[in-house]
Design brief:
- The complex is a heterodimer of chains A (300) and B (402).
- In chain A, 70% of the residues lie in helices and 1% in strands.
- With 300 residues, chain A is mainly α.
- Chain A has a two-stranded antiparallel ribbon.
- The two termini of chain A are 32 Å apart.
- Chain B has 16 helices and 9 strands.
- In chain B, helix 6 crosses helix 10 and helix 6 packs across helix 13.
- The relative contact order of chain B is 0.10.
- Classes of the chains: A mainly alpha (300), B alpha+beta (402).
- The interface between A and B is large, with 103 and 99 residues.
């Protein structure tokens, strides 16, 4: 080790020291402890008691757990593709060279700034079964077939769709990421495609999509992580996932186990299952898309 | 790829405008509801804009309130008190006949009745089309007595007018308490939220830029390991660390007699020790600054700290602004953190307070809820408009470099 190596090591460690502490105390230690707690009966009032796989075995038999898994899967299966499609469509429209693009972009992005709780309260009001504005707009339509519009959050079948719709309002972030990706596509490629006789769809299929594929993958991965952890919006809109727990999501049950029923070990086991699901889906997405992702050389 | 044909351009504009209307409509509804009197929030068909009705009674212009026919059971007349101690409450007037024009106010004191006189009630009777009964207390009336007139619909003046009173109720807890509304300590919640946001932002900016410098600009053994570890922990969802962190903070409070649960500390202290995502973001930015700059400074005998402080930081203002903005927005939004760690109502952040306010209301006073929600949304939108370019650039780069 030369003198400059040693100096660099000292300086590097010095500069990174806040994070070395932070990573250890606020990240690595909790991760380790969480693994341990997930094998324990832990009420936080008393020290954890080792019960082996007990929590996991209980979870397998816990109907509420499966209900929350089902609800979350249902939510993700619709919210994720619909959200990605909407974000991509908006980005494509914005990127079409129309005038006033930045104004439109701002307008479509604004909802994403709304704090989750404010968003929940607002959509709770919009979805109100009787006085909600959505139903007021729908009533003339549904009454042509002699029916009333759904009561949304108070109906077992409509509470999840309501949350999916509310979620679609906040596609601003992926939209901006798509838009940035679209703006990075070199125009020469489109020109070349045109010379080859490609139409609108041909250009989209053979230029836009491949060039955009890394961005799509990024949004997909972020989407998986966020939709599976949905918490604040249903917490305020459908506390306890009323009715019949039809909108009781994974993170809500996890929170309730930990801080309502003080079953911290049980909650930790749930957290690990969530992590493994996210990890599994991420790896699956990476594997399935590996052939289709096009990376330009070291761009930046 | 600018579309050439005018029809296609027109079609794209039409789609975008339609989309923008749909996207903006909830905002319109939020603000509109927040400025309505309560009876207009529960009215079918709904009013698009808040309205006020006036009538002239005995040569005096009086504000009248609309009541839904389904809320009113004859021969009772429900009156909402506008001013004084009982303001906001509903009183029920007993009457033999609407047309008779006299009634007793049930078990109410005379001075209350006197304060009531200005408020009249406008009743819609649906089956017979629209006709209105306007009812009013007489200033000179003897104790417990009320009197009313019948006015034809065309004598009712309707005007679009926001009811700022809703904001006063939400902003001024004393004002709300006087009127028996659930008080909302807006300024206190705002101060709490800002405290957590600002302490967190300072901590994040200071710690993450220092750490990112150490990871990006100093070649030392082990920095790649640390970087990969940092990236890997970004994958771990919050619920995994949630329980052990709670237990840790609780233990600090018990063992060291230095309470963390029920204070703001868990919500900002950890950020003084860096956070993976922001370190990653800044490291990527620092990497783009040419090494020649630091080499030149090094030859001039600058210490590593001087290079960081005088060379790199001034060049990184945009990236640091992005990190500061992201953390501010995140902390302003954060719900689960405050929900877990804050115990005293007076310590609540706006997010937590709004959720609590909603659950306390029992879901009827939508106009107040919307006013509170508007007050929570507004600062973020204002901040966004001032920092739009940086903000959007920041989001775009997070995707581009993933």
């Amino acid at each position: 080790m030369t003198r400059s190596d040693r100096r660099n090591l000292r300086n590097g460690l010095l500069f990174c020291s806040p994070w070395l502490i932070g990573l250890t105390v606020f990240v690595l230690y909790p991760i380790g402890a969480s693994v341990y707690y997930s094998f324990c009966e832990y009420t936080i009032l008393e020290p954890p008691q080792w019960i082996g796989l007990g929590n996991y075995a209980d979870l397998a038999r816990d109907e509420v757990f499966w209900k929350s898994v089902w609800n979350t899967a249902y939510y993700a299966v619709f919210a994720l593709p619909l959200g990605m499609l909407l974000a991509l469509s908006l980005a494509l429209l914005l990127n079409s060279g129309v005038r006033g693009m930045s104004l439109y972009r701002t307008l479509f992005f604004l909802p994403s700034l709304v704090p989750m709780i404010a968003l929940g309260v607002l959509w709770l009001w919009i979805f109100h079964g009787k006085y909600g504005i959505l139903n007021e707009l729908l009533r003339p339509i549904t009454q042509t077939v002699g029916a009333d519009p759904p009561v949304w959050l108070d109906n077992v079948h409509w509470s999840k769709p309501a949350l999916i719709i509310a979620g679609l309002w906040t596609v601003g972030q992926p939209m901006i990421i798509y838009l940035a990706g679209l703006q990075d596509v070199p125009t020469e490629l489109y020109e070349a495609a045109e010379i080859d006789g490609a139409g609108w769809f041909g250009k989209f299929r053979h230029v836009t999509l491949p060039m955009l594929s890394p961005v799509i993958l990024f949004n997909l991965l972020m989407g998986i992580i966020w939709t599976l952890q949905i918490f604040a919006v249903p917490f305020v809109m459908v506390r306890d996932g009323r009715p019949a727990r039809s909108a009781y999501f994974y993170a809500m049950y996890l929170y309730d186990c930990a801080f309502r029923y003080l079953q911290m070990g049980y909650a930790s086991a749930m957290a690990w299952i969530l992590f493994l699901i996210i990890l599994g889906l991420t790896l699956l997405a990476l594997k399935l898309t590996a052939r289709h992702i096009y990376y330009r050389g070291e761009g930046r | 790829m600018r579309p050439r044909r005018a029809t296609i351009r027109l079609l794209i504009h039409a789609t975008l405008i339609a989309g923008a209307v749909v996207f903006l409509f909830p905002f319109f509804w939020l603000v509109s509801t927040s400025l309505k009197p309560i009876e207009q929030t529960m009215q079918l068909p709904a009013e698009w804009l808040p309205r006020v009705h006036y009538a002239e009674i005995d040569g005096e212009r009086v504000k009248v309130v609309e009541q839904n026919e389904n809320q009113l059971v004859a021969p009772e007349v429900v009156v909402r008190v506008e001013e004084g101690e009982k303001a906001g409450q509903k009183l029920r007037l007993q009457a033999d006949d609407y047309r008779q024009g006299q009634a007793l106010v049930e078990e109410r004191r005379a001075d209350e009745v006197r304060k009531l006189w200005r408020r009249a009630t406008l009743i819609k009777q649906a089956p017979a089309g629209w006709f209105f009964v306007t009812e009013k207390f007489d200033r000179q009336a003897r104790n417990r007595e009320a009197r009313w007139d019948i006015l034809p619909a065309d004598q009712i003046e309707e005007r679009i007018q926001p009811q700022w009173f809703n904001y006063r109720v939400v902003l001024d807890p004393a004002f709300a308490a006087e009127r028996d509304y659930v008080p909302f300590l807006f300024w206190r919640y705002l101060a709490n939220t800002l405290t957590i946001c600002i302490l967190g932002v300072i901590g994040t900016v200071v710690s993450c830029s220092v750490v990112a410098y150490g990871l990006a600009r100093i070649p030392w053994r082990g920095r790649n390991v640390l970087f990969i570890l940092t990236l890997a922990t970004m994958m771990v969802p919050f619920p995994v660390t949630m329980v052990p962190l709670y237990a840790l903070y609780r233990k600090i409070g018990m063992v060291l007699d230095w309470p963390w649960i029920g204070t703001f500390k868990p919500l900002w202290v950890p950020f003084w020790f860096g956070s993976a995502f922001n370190i990653f973001l800044l490291r990527q930015f620092f990497k783009t600054i040419p090494t020649e700059l630091s080499d030149a400074a090094r030859i001039d005998g600058c210490s590593e700290w001087r290079i960081f402080w005088n060379v790199i930081l001034p060049l990184s203002k945009p990236a640091i602004t992005v990190v500061a903005l992201f953390h501010f927005m995140w902390a302003w939004n954060d719900f689960m953190g405050p929900l877990i760690y804050l115990t005293d109502k007076r310590d609540f952040t706006l997010s937590l307070a709004l959720q609590f306010f909603q659950s306390q209301q029992g879901g009827n006073e939508w106009h107040f809820l919307m006013a509170a929600a508007t007050l929570m949304v507004l600062p973020v939108i204002v901040l966004f408009f001032f920092t739009q370019r940086t903000f959007i650039q920041g989001i775009a780069t997070t995707g581009g470099k993933g």
